[in-house]
Amino acid sequence: MADRKLLEVMKGQNAFPPPVWMMRQAGRYLPEYREMRKRAGSFLDLCYNPDFAVEVTLQPIRRFGFDAAILFSDILVIPHALGRDLRFEEGVGPLMTPLDENDVSTLDSSHLHHRLSPVYETVRRVRKELPSETTLIGFCGAPWTVATYMIAGRGTPDQAPARLFGYKSPEAFAQLLDVIASCSADYLIRQIDAGADVVQIFDSWAGVLDEVSFERWCVRPVAEIVKRVRKKHPHVPIIGFPKGAGSLYADYRERTGVTALGLDWTVPMEAAQILQKAGPVQGNLDPMRLLAGGRALEEGVDAILAGLGGGPLIFNLGHGITPQTPIEHVERMVKKVREARQ
Ligand code: CP3
């Protein structure tokens, strides 16, 4: 495993040019993904059928030679495995029956690993098929972000339903976060058992909370997951991505104990450099720069390499790639990162 560059960076070493991968690298911007998606039928069939999921995980590696593959699945398989209904509608996104206070005690984790066993099978098969130098990243959603979808039953612009639920029913909300955290920790442990080298915790909606709620609803449940995963797998690096955490990023690293911080594109360079002094960072090109291409892309990549290339850096976007992004722009980004000289 010594040849996996991303793992060297996770130990705090500086690798230049940095390892590179993209959040949502398996997805609709790839014609081969769209083809598979059509064959699978629904998005969930894609996630739960290892034949499809392995193939889709490997597609971006074959095309771009990224330094890391990320398991193809979704953060919402956890509530689904807990017995909540879930479907993905074209042009809308995930849809679930909104969860109310009385539903919390009905969440049933007794079938969790049985229902998620195709995901573990996918991890095992991907690890076997990946080149040895490619890192395999497993993942889960952070409890707060997963809860926002369970409560609203869909994506919302400001996560108001979940915030309101948290303030009006604090006990039920704490219980909900506990259940998700405990299942997510077990889920990550099983992914690591199956061959994941690194895991990432996606907290896409961390940026809408006040300081106290951020501590209570983002930091604490993620710290619990980190503690439980480390107990079983003390040396497996964990990337935390509290998107939009702004000035709370430093606190988040310190209090959750994650190995590396995923930075969104709004983090100013000077702040990113300070965060990097305490450990590895990942990011943080604005996905709209990648979509735009041309000067916007060149300038964005240059700024990250110049500002963060001197320390432990995993080059990535500041959030997922969007479906309209031209493949040539991705090729250009990878080439530019790989050919960079210090
Ligand atoms: O990164 C990867 O390539 C691995 C697979 C992955 C997916 N979702 C596949 C997916 C990962 C890591 C995720 C994480 C995820 N899922 C997050 C956190 C990261 C983020 O983007 O903020 C969230 C919030 C979700 C929930 C989710 N899944 C939403 C809101 C949507 C709809 C929006 C959209 O992009 O369509 C999904 C669907 C989804 N998950 C798709 C993919 C490739 C598109 C589904 C399709 O093919 O129709």
Compose a concise summary of this entry.
The chain is α/β, with parallel strands linked by helices. It has helices at residues 5-10, 31-40, 43-48, 50-64, 77-81, 112-129, 143-152, 160-168, 170-194, 211-232, 249-256, 269-277, 287-292, 294-308, 327-338; strands at 68-70, 87-89, 93-95, 135-141, 198-203, 238-242, 260-262, 281-285, 313-317.
Protein model, in words:
- It is a single chain.
- This protein has 342 residues and is of the alpha/beta class.
- It contains 15 helices and nine strands.
- The chain has a seven-stranded parallel sheet with strand order 1-4-5-6-7-8-9.
- The mean pLDDT is 97.
- Bound molecules: coproporphyrinogen III (CP3).
- Residues 23-28, 37, 43, 70, 72, 74-76, 88, 93-94, 139, 141, 145, 155, 202, 204, 320 line the site of coproporphyrinogen III (CP3).
Fraction of residues in H or I helices: 40-55%
Q: Percent of residues in beta strands? A: 5-15%
- Outline, from the CA principal axes? globular
Largest sheet: 7 strands, parallel
Distance between the termini: 26 Å
Query: Based on DSSP secondary structure assignment, what is the total number of beta strands?
Result: 9
Level-2 CATH architecture? Alpha-Beta Barrel
The total domain count is 1
Q: Count of helical segments?
A: 15
Unreliable runs: none
CATH class: Alpha Beta
- Pairing-aware structural class of the strands and helices? alpha/beta
CATH topology: TIM Barrel
Radius of gyration, CA atoms, in whole angstroms:
19 Å
What string, H for helix and E for strand, traces the elements in order? HHHHEHEEHEHHHEHEHEHEHHEH
Ligands (ions, cofactors included): coproporphyrinogen III
| Mean pLDDT value | 97
Strand arrangement across the biggest beta sheet:
1-4-5-6-7-8-9
